[in-house]
Amino acid sequence: MEIIQVLSYGIxxxxxxxxxxxxxxxxxxxxxIVNVAQGAFLVxxxxxxxxIWDLTGIEPILLIPVVALLWFGLGIIIYRTLFVRxxxxxxxxxxxxxxxxxxxxxxxLNLIFGNKFxxxxxxxxxxxxxxxxxxxxxxxxxxxxxxxxxxxxxxxYLKLSWAGRALRATAQNRDGAALIGISHRKISSFAYGLGxxxxxxxxxxxxxxxxxxxxxxxxxxxKLLGIIVLGGMGSIPxxxxxxxxxxxxEAAGNTxxxxxxxLFFYGVxxxxxxxxxxxxxxxxxxxxxV
Amino acid sequence: MKSLRFTKAKKIAVLFWAILILIPVLLPDSxxxxxxxxxxxxxxxxxxGWNILSGLAGYVSLGHSVFLGVGMYTGAIxxxxxxxxxxxxxxxGMLTAMAFAFLLGSITLRTRSHAFVIITIAILLSxxxxxxxxxxxxxxxxxxxxxxxxxxxxxxxxxYYYMFLVVLVLTVALVRxxxxxxxxxxxxxxxxxxxxxxxxxxxxxxxxxxxxxxSAAPYGLVGAIYSQYLGxxxxxxxxxxxxxxxxxLAALVGGKGTLWGPVFGGFFIAFANEASTVFSxxxxxxxxxxxxxxxxxxxxxxQGLLVSVATxxxxxxxxxxxxxxxxxxxxxxxxxxxxxxxxxxxxxKAKADSSESILQVKGLYKSFGGVKAxxxxxMDIKRGSITGLIGPNGSGKTTLFNCITGTxxxxxxxxxxxxxxxxxxxPWTRAHMxxxxxxxxxKLFKSMSVLDNLVAPLEKPSARNMLANKMQGEEVExxxxxxxxxxxxxxxxxxxxxxxxxxxxxxEFAQILMLRPDIVMLDEPASGINPxxxxxxxxxxxxxxxxxxxxxxxxxxxxxxxxxxxxxxVLSAGEIMVSGxxxxxxxxxxxxxxxxxxxxxxxxxxx
Lengths: 290, 607
Hints:
The complex is a heterodimer.
Chain A: H1 2-31, H2 38-56, H3 64-86, H4 91-113, E1 128-131, E2 134-137, H5 138-160, H6 162-172, H7 174-179, H8 184-209, H9 216-231, H10 236-256, H11 261-275
Antiparallel strand pairs in A: 1-2
Helix pairs in contact in A: 1-5, 1-8, 1-9, 1-10, 2-4, 2-8, 2-9, 3-8, 5-6, 5-8, 6-8, 9-10, 9-11, 10-11
Chain B: H1 2-26, H2 31-56, H3 66-82, H4 90-108, H5 115-133, H6 135-138, E1 144-145, H7 152-155, H8 158-180, H9 182-192, H10 194-199, H11 204-230, E2 232-233, H12 235-238, H13 241-254, H14 261-279, H15 283-300, H16 305-318, H17 328-333, H18 347-350, E3 357-368, E4 371-382, E5 386-390, H19 397-405, E6 412-417, E7 420-421, H20 427-432, E8 435-437, H21 450-455, H22 463-467, H23 474-485, H24 501-513, E9 519-523, H25 531-546, E10 550-554, H26 558-564, E11 567-572, E12 575-580, H27 582-586, H28 589-596
Parallel strand pairs in B: 5-10, 5-11, 8-9, 9-10
Antiparallel strand pairs in B: 1-2, 3-4, 3-6, 6-7, 11-12
Helix pairs in contact in B: 1-8, 2-8, 2-9, 2-11, 2-13, 2-14, 3-4, 3-11, 4-11, 8-9, 8-11, 9-11, 13-14, 13-15
């Protein structure tokens, strides 16, 4: 029974991680940027949710479209003002730029909200659903379900819309896409905005299921980056598989050896790199050499 | 002019060290200043160490302070167990940090990917967690407290000041040594173009791991001293990500990839940090300020302050210099001598026996998704021949090259070179065995001079070779001779990106001759270059071939191929369509059809 409990916790965690890490994978796949600021975007989204909830008492889940849309716009602005200038210098400079952004956000959140843990209390905060003997904490279930919904919407959008096709085309072959009239600059800022929107939506979700604190963005980002390394950097399906796997590992760690959980988490990643250095679904693409 | 500037730079360096050595002597009451300078030294040491991996080899680490923590705890634990001061264990701290880097690097640096930068953050957080939880060894989150030395009351910080200074001097000396050695040239070549580096004999995995270990060494060394200086250590302080922020920032602000940039940056950031503590206080404000400085630096002075200022000065100095006229036609016509022993291996191997194969490809397949780029190629390259490989665009010529040289692994099939099955070997091993190749779009190391590009290839992977000074010894003589032979000697000091595309093609050809190759594989050597240079090129090919070097040439310039080659393979849709002498290929109807369309008559072609 315990195993099933662990597995179901793991899948719930994995569902949330799937959404959070796919934005990161999207940004990397299209833009070749390791967006270290993603964790800070996530945590700041959570703080915004907390602030609105604190003022109005609104059900936080309803804020997903609002925060996502806001973050989408912010992402486009950030890309167009900052990244567009640094992108030609390659990934080693864009990673430093996003690191700088993360620090600015952390510092700003600290100054605005102070160094205190905040958490959103909802009617279901302390509830849990029971299925037989298995316990499902309500906030986790709701966060995970909402993450799945957002992820499906994102998937459909990427699959069906022109912008989604253009985005995938750019990820596969940037110059080829430019030749058939896809503006690299526009699609790049769009991709960055989309990636940031997932962080906004994710921020709402973590605000109901986790205590929030500015410096937690380091833990988030290293977890999420670990997931996409495991899954194979630019691959969204890879990110989802990695999320599920590591969600289960984390749940198992929490149950059997709580103080070592994070170590299990990274241990799995490092082990997998030993056997498959390019990640589970990562392929060495043609552009790597030539 | 140049030598004058050199001595000036040297004078500044000597003055810098002299002032630092004399400060405690001249100002005995300067405890505060010394403690501030100790922080400067620490930041400069860390930024310089980081620079080896991230500045020279181009692999950014965002969790490098983990090695400081490793050094601190190594010293602290050994000190606690033995009852002596932690700084006596500084060398052991260094070795521990290097061993740790070796272990991590062997896992995370095997591929060329961005996974590394990500793993570095995870490693920092993981180690912090281990140290917090392994209470028996580390004292857990309570940390470890040390008794202070008896001299601390009278001598204050001064002994520490000198310890940190010594480590700084050692670190700068290490970076200087690396930058002057061929090892450093190898690091930079990885930063500029990793797959190219592998093709000229640089074992990129090994180099990256070495860079990682060397960059960790100063951290381990200074860590054991630092823990005694602090008097108390705990996991959150020793493995703080903020230290990583400071050191990255220091290297970047000063100028990564340079010798003095990170030192300057370390001082700069230490002073800035002190100022922000004095004036604003709170750690939140400091994080914010560091973030702003980082973003600002990346956006506006990505080269770093020191480099930007130096570039500005150099431009001002160069303003009045006249531009030198280079008579390219005269150079192209001049015949420079070439000692053939300098471009080929011991004669026993290179003996031209036309019946023997030097390179055999058997049933080679390679596909990308649904595209079968190479679809079952079998061919035999005779020793001492000049073999042409022609075919329409997209027929798989370059992919075949990449499979032969190991840039890609083939899906199936084998490649035999000099009697050895090399199918599973790494590109650098193939280069060491005498295989040299150029690229369709030249891949030279764009941040290096022409001469540096020539000394970068590693013919033999010996430690002596790697540690040798890159600008001394017979390698440089060889490089100069080959450049002269190619008519490029007047460009020796130019940056390769200042050269025309055709000249770059010749430089790349010259570069692979440094490997003393048995076989030279040229990918479209004549495309985009002018007739004078083509002339130069074919002369060089013929001369080397006369001496026994085998050539395999992909080329679209049909007259050149027909004139130069003994034997030609025609590739079409990933398969060999026709093979034969130039005469046979020229008259083959299928070839004519593939190249010129069905209705074209050969008479119209001027060959």
